[in-house]
Amino acid sequence: MALADLMVVMEGGKIRQMGTPQEVYKHPRTPFVARFIGGRNLLSGEVVASHGRHATVQSQGGARFTIPVDGAQVGDKVVCSIHCDKTGLASSTVDTNALAGTVVAVEYCGAWVQIRLQSSTEDFTLLLTEASFDDHPVSVGDRVTATRAVEDTDILSEA
To answer: Where are the alpha helices (DSSP H) in the chain?
Structure first.
């Protein structure tokens, strides 16, 4: 990625996405590309409400989150991608765009601290700045809530 002007991600001999490294990294189009590039969480669920340019999705585990999408229909299945570094920990209880889970790993990486959560149906990884972590440290076994902004979500296609 550091040396390329154009990046092509292939799966099974088929091009899944082509673009600049920034385009592919910031906006993967499929779950395969998102997993291949890494640094993202994938959440899936069903649209339970549609309101203008946003829709509410419910995961199998019951978590609800809002996604930026035009024209979603109730019952549509979606897969969403969220950068690990675009997430945070809630300081209080929140109802939307939140995923409650148990901390299963805390890894100090210098300027970043990686926190892995296990929820009822999803594994979720957060990358917090060292300063943010130092302000509100967590430990393995703690129950926490991960949050994110609506605009930090990409909707992926299955193709």
So the answer is: 21-26, 31-37, 130-135
Q: What token pair was written down for 129?
A: 């700045």
**pLDDT at position 94, please?**
65
**Angle at the Cα of 135 from the Cα atoms of 103 and 149, rounded to 5 degrees:** 65
DSSP-derived letter for residue 13 is T
Where b means 16+ CB within 10 Å and e means fewer, 96-118 reads: ebbbbbebeebeeeeebbbbbbe
Cα separation, 64 vs 45, in Å, equals: 9
pTM for the predicted model, two decimal places: 0.82
pLDDT tens by residue, 11-54: 999 999 999 999 999 999 999 999 999 999 998 899 999 888 88
Please choose, from the candidates 69, 36, 39, 75, the residue with its C-alpha nearest in 3D space to the C-alpha of residue 54.
69
Classify 39-156 by CATH class: mainly beta
**Domain boundaries along the sequence of the chain:** 1-38, 39-156
Query: What pairs with residue 99 in β-bridges?
Result: 146
> Is the model's pLDDT at 121 over the cut of 90?
no
